[in-house]
Amino acid sequence: MIINHIHNSEKNKSILLDCTLRDGGYVNDWMFGRKNIQRIVQLLDMSGVDYIEMGFIRLDDYNPEQAGFNKIEQISDLIPTTRTKLAAMVEIGYGYPAAYFPQKIETNNIELIRLIIWKRLLKESVEYCKELVKKGYRVCVQVTRTDQYTEKEFIDLIKMFNETKIYGLYIVDTFGLMNKEMVLNYSVIADEYLHTDIALGYHAHNNMQQAFTNTIAMTEKNWKHQLMIDASVLGMGRGAGNLNLELYMKYCNDNYGTDYNIEPLITIVDECLMPFYKSSPWGYSMPYYLSAVNNVNPTYTTYFIHHGLTIKQIDLIFRELKLKDTNIVYDKNIADEMVSEFQGVISV
Predict the structure, then answer these.
(1) pLDDT score of 107
(2) Centroid of chain to Cα 101
(3) pTM of the model as a whole
């Protein structure tokens, strides 16, 4: 089933998912405010996106002012009705049991669950997907740091998930380091080995200013699979941010005859996002470029910027982290040591 707005050309169909609240929440600790969350969803609902991702489902205490939840029912209470289907994200390594998800019911507008998978927990991820599918949810698998997989490993992963009846499988450029050739190479593999009824997704980060161009390259190809694209308003997201929803909508309107409504996104920026942008700006910057070049977890970048390190200091630290093979998983103790080495005393 192709949902809502798709490209007129059968070669360029795409399902568009907005991740402003979920990925954008890294900027403000998901503290959008309840009224803002509802307003953002209301306006996105007018834009023609196919899915609105509400936030993470985690074992944290629930705060109604945050775009984060510990029960899926809290999303239904917050947003009782929309024309647009809602989505939520869960991460395999954070211990949230699949059993906590209730059986999907027709009146529930939360249709899609996206699962972040870890390479060392693939078998557990497969079982998790099976449980969610049995409960009636559409499930998308987010292959975090897709670039870490060899071609053979990626093929094997696809074959594992082919039997789970998932809705989509995503290429995820977690650190924003993948160029067009890399993205298309993984896409060609997925297009060849994925079951035909599974969508091919792409989630970009903009560390090297490649989110838009990589996505256009994906969109222009004649895939055998339904294409899914993630984007956020104003590119809101951790560090360098994501693909800009407004840019991709305009591209689709100009090139494929879609009728996405971009006006509500302008209102979202004015009413809901600008205060966050002014206090904690996101988007391309040299430190996040360096994190991509050195394959470093961007949480380090945010931490070092917060502690006032210079770009040159950050570059030297990234090289050291990579040399010591401590660049992938963020460790605050290591970050503190690096700041102490370059700055002397860490203020608490």
Answers:
(1) 60
(2) 21
(3) 0.91
